[in-house]
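Researcher: Here's the sequence for the chain we discussed earlier.
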Amino acid sequence: MGFSAADWRVPAMVAVDDAAVAAALWERFGVRGTARDLGSQQDRNYRVRTDPGGDHVLKIANPVTDPATLRAQVTAAEHLATADPALRLPRTRAGVDGDFVQRITVGGVALHCRLFDYVPGEPIMDSRYLAPRVVARLGGLAGRTTASLAGLDMPDPDGPRLWDLRNAADVVEALAPFMTDTARAERVVREARAAHARLRTLEERLPVQVIHGDLTDNNVVCEPGPDGRPLPVGVIDFGDLGYGWAVAELAVTCASVLHHHGSTPASVLPAVRAFHAVRPLAGPETDALWPLVVLRTAVLVVSGQYDVLQDPGNEYAGTALDREWAMFEAAVSVPAEVMTAQLRSAVGHLAPPGPPAAGHPLLPEPTGGVETLDLSVSSGVLHEGRWLAADAEDALAAGALERNGTAVRTRHGEYRLTRSRPGEPDAATLALGTELRVAVPLELRAPWAGSLVRHSPDGVTLRTDDGWSLVLDGIDGIDTETEGDGADTATSSVGRAVPAGAPLGTLVPRPDGSAAHLQLSRLADRPAPRTVPPDLAEGWLAVCPDPAALFEPVVPAARTGPGTGAASLLERRDRSFAAVQEHYFDAPPRIERGWREHLVDTEGRCYLDMLNNVTILGHGHPGLSEAVHQQWQRLNTNSRFHYESVVSLSERLAGLLPDGLDTVFLVNSGSEAVDLALRLAWAAAGRQDVVAVGEAYHGWTYASDAVSTSVADNPGALASRPDWVHVLPAPNSYRGSHRGQDAERYGPLAADSIRELARSGRPPAAFICEPYYGNAGGMALPDGYLRQVYEATRAAGGLCVADEVQVGYGRLGSHFWGFEQQGVVPDIVTVAKAMGNGHPLGAVITSKGIADTYRSQGYFFSSAGGSPVSSVVGLTVLDALRDEGLQENARVVGGHLRERLLELAGRHPLIGAVHGTGLYLGVEFVRDRETLEPAAEETAAICERLRELGVVVQPTSDRLCVLKIKPPLCLTRESADRFAAALDDTLTHGW
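Model: Thanks. This is the structure I predict for it:
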């Protein structure tokens, strides 16, 4: 450590006034224009606008900067421009004498300056959220720059450079004493020393080359992507160019990610993968990366504090202090061993070696064996929300121990459903150890020789010479000698040597049902947590491997095998499942459990389901599950047999509708229901013409697809309708041809169109419409619309079909059926989705006279429609809707959520409108509230960000710019607030 603060001190920049800037521009470069100070830590930078239309950057270097270094920076930029022509770079303009570096004098001090062409684009100057693809672009730019500069040679400066990470430990030691917060200073020094110690064995194997040295978020220029995200396309500010470790370039980039909203150490992984894809990392570089990230953030903290002390008026340096500390705290929040193992996994390098093989069994094999608890998301014993109970694990273990009579264990490396919690998408679900409960005492013995330390009254740690620790907690009979000679407390850091097979303590039955905990760990300076979030799973599992091999001859297989992870399962799906059957999200989580309004993926992440209008009761409904179970055990057949449930369901459905709608057909889906409704209309009217509305979706069968006009579902929908389908303009009161109060014109115009059809000799057999405009984003039809259209249709001899597949069953809160909101009674009603709470069940309800006309086309039969199981499902759903007050809940909670969304609309201009009522809502995003330009790409990106925050929602409407908000009707006020908060976070901090 042979350097002092003076070696790293960069003197405060001399004051440069407007006159000096103007003189430099004109006298040295022949340019006149207006200059705006851009701020800088140690130099002075100005954006210069000239007439006509010129745009430049004037950089005046700190007086300590050698002109040769400035010329080297020019050379490096030109070298990069040749090697990577697609990269936007600052190109230097020669001065009046032909030299790129010009000398000026300000206040008697000689300074050097350069003039660059302005690089179009904007740097990332704030701490807003950075999406993974943006982080990947940063890493890719760092990789391209590093690869292109690898062959460049330049003069090596005589003195050490502050930002050369080869000097980072010296910088921290020299400048930390100047920090005003001594506790922070001590922490920075401690972490920097630990990071430097990790580098010592790697330094000689790290390639050295010319690097940019400061390729950070605010030293790239970005273009806005179609979704509003910044897309890095260029590199600026070569002021820290010089020789350094090549991997240091990536470390600098990774560190700059860590101050952004929502960032964690895992956030840098896309940058690392992208860098590695361009400029592959060698093994030592991967191992050095995270210590270098820690050192970079430590240098930022100490130098930032020092700069403010030396130059109190430097606003640029002062405003950076908080984000520099945030970067440091993020960098040291995860042990370096864990991050190194995670980085190895990210780039495909081998994991660190595991612990030594056991020379002696840790435990004798219990008589009767050891039963393994299944606490995973797919567990068969955690239904009906039992996983949310605080004592779920203890209760399951007690029951298993009573059955087994010997021992019960939990599984290492399991994502525990019992640790998942609604509203906590980053809950610590991954188990890093094994818990054991025994019915009879079992003696523990050392599996290998080592040093034994008692770390708590009921816990010991056995450490090996090669850095592994076996940590045992919740045991009895610990040898008091383990405390060390003269120890007068229950714990000690003084260890004693023990051979393999030496007694460590005893596992005993605990009256309170608590467990002993066994864990292997490679961490040298801290205990490992018992569970961690999934985002760094590979790193933590490498550092804390499975201890089961120490006490079991055969380790139970993990719940997930090859090809069952989310990504590999998606590959299997793509090979065998028709691709036209699309999935939500580009990289979807694997969802294997639901409970009420929540979904849980296989890593235990819990999501709020704001999308699923199929499961109207909520997921995993106990009453429905039990009813299906009981009925399936008794009978399931087809509706040609005579049984009670199909009659009861038909009676219940007819009883929920106005008089005259008394006859029920049962089918399997909404598509079938609409198809059958149209066939009934054709049979009754004796003709085929049908009137539909634009932006509608009704199904995928021939007839239901024919009347579906949404271009989101079928881009060629409008051009490919059969000639018997006549499409009315979408009655969209927000962005249609008639808006606001003028929307009342839709009804008369639609009625006129129907009358014109009749006059032309093509009277419609039917008019079909959602009575509440779901596919457009949960939008109410204009008042009186259906009354006027129904009257015109019936006057032409046609039937009126209300497609209630999405909107019916109480979702509106104020009404059970959507058509009630319009004050009309249809001739035919179609229903599905909610009717079965996810079970394939649909219905068509009409009058007996209309139903009987179907016989002209033969008989009707659906093998599974109205089966005993399906009928029981339908009855149970109706019972639950009534008994659990779900329609009222939709009214109350939906009203509250709508108010929350309207409040957000008042603060976030991207929200153009909030549509809907009850729990049938839509948030429409627009780029301009005047032109209503749809923000489709932004909407998709917002959905991705909301998923990261634990909310599942998707776009809808023909423009795909509306959030589809149709959650289960059991949604609570707390969950509604959680959704609003997540949306607010996304719109405030970015997506």
